[in-house]
């Protein structure tokens, strides 16, 4: 899709879930008794409702809110990723997030554990303070079952894709929502191989072998979605976010070599899929922290454009990256490619004024051409801000796109 006669809108994926669906998901995650038929019907109806609400709000390219990606708590920064644990075979459970087994890296750099992020350590007191308003280091449910967290899986045998029934359910629910809303276009999110490989590994001999194995199994999900005529959004925050997970900080050159392995694996996974049905989502992580150790987009923008997707969604509105629109003044956007910059942010409860949204859209339109810009969100809004705030932000996005259209067309 291109903004041929007006500025179109979309978003990064996750939207607020209804409380009854969250509770059913919690019961499923905790392996409590629940009514499977009730869950299936609740999920289907919730998806229909969220697609219709997006259309009514003015979102041109909606999705299912990622409702098929299980989220069992109101605040959940990891559902975009952890859903894949339920769709892969060959996994066991690993509860010690500080000592996750991993394959030898071919690179001179190797990822640290999640709690050893440089930003988390630099602001350790703030991250550890539950009243600070920023993310607290993740805990395992096995360590403290009363605290939200996750138990990390580890690969114990050859990876397989086992999520065919779940992805077909998500496709059917999304199409039911599109039919009810009277729209023809929609997308579903699917985790990328770089992010999928950020779990424990006791089977694959090297880091590269592990990443490529993830690419092969996740390709099955990409194909299921695009064969159904829907767009697949590859959620791959690790593309930029991995930078913060090396301690000490690597050289930019070493990081680019590490990241290029993941770019090549993803391109292999996308082979033969029409680019117009693919979108790549890049962010620096959705937690509400300082982010002073984020890599700058200027250091990886050329790698981003080597990914064989038709459009690129990325953080562009939050206070750490709002200035980076200038990078695109010096970048030759390849023909046929579209940018979906975030023009409203998940990182603040302040609702962006539509005039500011229009200003942000115009910056990108002037840099790469108005037809090549779709207004988006920095990251998923579901589980990051209050539902009232999330929907108000999408309304501001829609209103800002209309103002931008008046200026640019």
TrEMBL record:
Query: Origin, by domain of life?
Result: Bacteria
What the entry lists under Gene3D superfamilies is as follows: 3.20.20.210
Give me the segments passing through the membrane: none
Name of this protein? Epoxyalkane--coenzyme M transferase
The lineage, from the top, is: Bacteria, Bacillati, Actinomycetota, Thermoleophilia, Solirubrobacterales
Which GO terms label this protein's molecular function in UniProt? 5-methyltetrahydropteroyltriglutamate-homocysteine S-methyltransferase activity; zinc ion binding
Q: Which organism is it from?
A: Capillimicrobium parvum
GO:BP terms for this protein? methionine biosynthetic process
Q: Which PANTHER family match?
A: METHIONINE SYNTHASE, SYNTHASE, VITAMIN-B12 INDEPENDENT, PUTATIVE (AFU_ORTHOLOGUE AFUA_3G12060)-RELATED
């Amino acid at each position: 899709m291109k903004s041929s006669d007006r500025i179109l809108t979309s978003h990064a994926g996750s939207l607020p879930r209804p409380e009854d669906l969250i509770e059913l998901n919690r019961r499923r995650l905790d392996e409590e008794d629940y009514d499977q038929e009730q869950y299936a019907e609740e999920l289907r109806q919730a998806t229909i409702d969220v697609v219709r609400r997006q259309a009514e709000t003015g979102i041109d390219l909606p999705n299912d809110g990622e409702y098929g990606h299980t989220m069992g708590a109101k605040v959940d920064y990891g559902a975009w990723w952890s859903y894949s644990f339920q769709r892969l075979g060959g996994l066991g459970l690993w509860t010690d997030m500080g000592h996750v087994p991993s394959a030898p890296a071919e690179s001179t750099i190797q990822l640290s554990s999640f709690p050893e992020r440089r930003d988390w350590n630099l602001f350790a007191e703030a991250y550890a303070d539950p009243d600070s308003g920023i993310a607290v280091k993740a805990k395992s449910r096995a360590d403290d079952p009363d605290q939200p967290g996750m138990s990390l899986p580890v690969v114990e045998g050859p990876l397989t894709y086992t999520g065919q029934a779940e992805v077909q359910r998500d496709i059917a629910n999304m199409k039911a929502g599109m039919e009810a809303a009277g729209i023809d276009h929609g997308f579903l999110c699917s985790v990328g191989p770089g992010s999928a490989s950020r779990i424990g590994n006791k089977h694959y001999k090297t880091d590269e072998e592990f990443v490529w194995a993830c690419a092969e199994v996740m390709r099955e999900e990409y194909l299921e979605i695009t064969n159904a005529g829907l767009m697949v959004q590859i959620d791959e925050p690790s593309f930029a976010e991995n930078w913060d997970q090396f301690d000490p900080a690597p050289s930019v050159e070493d990081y680019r070599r590490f990241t290029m392995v993941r770019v090549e694996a993803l391109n292999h996974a996308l082979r033969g899929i029409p680019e117009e049905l693919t979108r790549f989502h890049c962010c620096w992580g959705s937690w509400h922290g300082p982010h002073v150790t984020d890599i700058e987009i200027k250091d990886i923008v050329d790698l981003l454009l080597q990914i064989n997707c038709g459009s690129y969604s990325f953080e562009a509105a939050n206070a750490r990256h709002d200035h980076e629109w200038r990078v695109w003044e010096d970048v030759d956007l390849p023909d046929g490619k579209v940018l979906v910059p975030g023009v409203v942010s998940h990182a603040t409860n302040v609702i962006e004024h539509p005039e500011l949204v229009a200003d942000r859209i115009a910056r990108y339109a002037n840099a790469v051409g108005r037809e090549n810009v779709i207004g988006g969100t920095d990251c998923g809004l579901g589980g990051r801000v209050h539902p009232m705030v999330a929907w108000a932000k999408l309304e501001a996005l829609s209103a800002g796109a209309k103002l931008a259209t008046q200026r640019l067309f």
